[in-house]
Amino acid sequence: MTTPSRYPLRLSENLRHEAVRMAKKEKTSLNSFIEIAVAERIANLKTTEFFASRAERSGAKGLHWFFNQQDAGLPVMPGDELPEGVNFIKELLDKPSVS
Question: What stretches of the chain show up as alpha helix (H) in DSSP?
C-alpha cells in the first residue's frame, strides 16, 4: 500500500457542492469520492491510449481482415454471427476516405 500524500485541491463552489452531494449519496467521504473519480478517469484515459495504439498498429487493413473473415470461407463460431444490418460497417470501410 502506498503512503497517502496531501494535495491542496481547489474546486469551484458549484463543483464542490455537487461532489459533496454525490459523496453523501454514495455513503463515502468527499476525499474517497474524489480519489475514486480520479482513479476512474486515469483508467479511462489508459484504456483510450491502449485502444488508440492498437488501432494504429492494425489500421483499416486489420478491420477489413476482421470483417471479411466470414467471406473468407472460414467457419463462423456459434455466437459470433453478425446480426442483420451490420454490413454497414463493411460498407463504411470500403468507402474511400475523405481527407
Answer: 13-25, 30-67, 87-94
| Distance (Å, whole) CA 58 – CA 51 | 10
Q: Where are the domains of the chain?
A: 13-94
Q: Give the relative orientation of helices 87-94 and 30-67 as an angle to the nearest 10 degrees.
A: 70
Q: How far is CA 42 from CA 29, 46, 69, 96, 98, in A?
A: 20, 6, 35, 35, 33
**Cα gap 94→61, rounded to integer Å:** 11
Tens-level pLDDT at each residue, the chain (99 residues): 678 888 899 999 999 999 999 999 999 999 999 999 999 999 999 998 887 787 777 766 666 666 666 556 677 778 777 677 666 666 666 666 554
Angle at CA of residue 52, ends 46 and 53, nearest 5°: 90
